[in-house]
Design goal:
Elements: H1 2-15, H2 23-31, E1 39-45, E2 48-53, H3 66-76, E3 84-89, E4 92-94, E5 97-99, E6 102-105, H4 114-126, E7 131-133, E8 136-139, E9 177-183, E10 188-193, E11 199-203, E12 206-208, E13 219-227, E14 230-240, E15 244-249, H5 254-268, E16 272-273, E17 277-279, H6 282-288, E18 294-300, H7 304-312, H8 317-329, H9 352-355, H10 362-376, H11 400-412, H12 416-420, E19 446-452, E20 455-463, E21 469-477, H13 485-499
Parallel strand pairs: 5-7, 6-8, 7-16, 8-17, 11-14, 12-14
Antiparallel strand pairs: 1-2, 1-21, 3-6, 3-18, 4-5, 9-10, 9-15, 13-14, 19-20, 20-21
Length: about 500
Amino acid sequence: MRRLLLATLFAAIGASAQAALPEPIARIAAEKGIPEDAIGALVLRGDQVLVSHDAARTFTPASTMKLFTTMVGLDTLGPQFRGRTELRTTGEVVRGVLHGDVVLRGGADGDLTADAFAHMLEKLRIKGVRKIQGNLVLDRQLWQPARSDVGVAPFDESPEAYYNLIPDALLLNMNLQTLDLTSDAKSLKASVLPELANVRVRSEMTLTDGECAKWEDGWKIPEYERTGSRITVVLKGTFPRNCSKTNVVNILDRTVYAERLFRATWERLGGRFTGQAVEASAQESRAFSGAASSLLAEHVSRPLSETVRDINKPSDNGLARTVFLSLGSLQADPVLGSRPLPDQAGPASPGGADEAPPAATTQARAEMVIRNWLRAQGIDDTGMVFENGSGLSRIERFSPEQMAGLLKAAQKSLWAPEFLTSLPIAGIDGTMKRRLKESSASMRARVKTGTLKNVVAIAGYVPDANGQQCIVVVMVNHDRAGNGNGRAIVDGMVDWVSRTN
């Protein structure tokens, strides 16, 4: 029935005459120098179409793409889905010595912080282990390819930034280091956390008389030097005098990072480690899941019902991509067979395994799960392009109609409350915290934002002047969309809907 209703609605939209943009929005676009053909918009009040402007044409959506990932994730993985990290061994403990490898087995755990990892190793110490006479085996094989970050060109000029992080199934502390930078009139002090074995930081930044608030203007990508076993992170660029700032960066190779964090944490707990970090092969990974290894400790992430809030409100690309790939990791590979970890077995998506090609990448499987979900809701997926499910992409595309279909289907979902509460609230939190504070939409509209170079978008739910919930989707794709121009258009539409009777 839901599929029939959605299909009927889209047929009505397609059959209706092209609705002009509301006059206030058209005026803003003209003032900002953005042509109307660079704007796609659809506003629905129930089954009534209030605005339909290029609604069937696909646009680059930026982070509004996360709504597809999180809604389909809730519906297919379930709100109690949790990622899991396992610490396993292939050896035996004799008089406090573990003879054999320690396996860190990744399972899409987005909450595996340095503190959580330390707690796992504490459990190992409690079991009486004081020395590990073997290697640290890093098992990332849940997703294929296991290291999709290798050889990939940087998305933009800030590859070290957190928003650019490319996830894998075993991403220890998100591979991040937190830099604390504090300067006085003459010198700069730099410190870094978490502590990594034989990793230090050295500043070669030049102090300037610039504004502390604009410190990022002088930031350059750090470099690192390797001398024997010692790694030195070298800070470059300029930094204002009498300024204190914190920056989170992804610089080190993840195998190096994991080994250095493991070694530093284990030694801090009083343990000894004589091996090195190595990456598990697919064959080794399959062996670890059976009798060839035993479980020493584990860590599970928060349930998906909580994670989606941390995805949509602050627009977290890394977590969104983790959920997206988790959708694909549950699809049985016709060649290799599936390998979901315990507590990851959610409802199978209809048809995904049947339509995915043999040995398909996890990314391709995830895309098929979303497409099958859309088709089951009666939403035509023609023209949609998926890359990573986060919107940090210059090729991902969908139309306002397709997004409106998702938002309408979400209202009927069993998990509608979890989805709705994940969206930023105008004037209150997330990426909408400082927007529309003076509008009647403030504290009432729940919308996901999206921003890239030449792209500004919003999608979500806005009550009209009578309190009736409206679905609002607006996307601006134009080289003048930056500098607040595109934001004026999309926020103007939210404000207009909130004032409409």
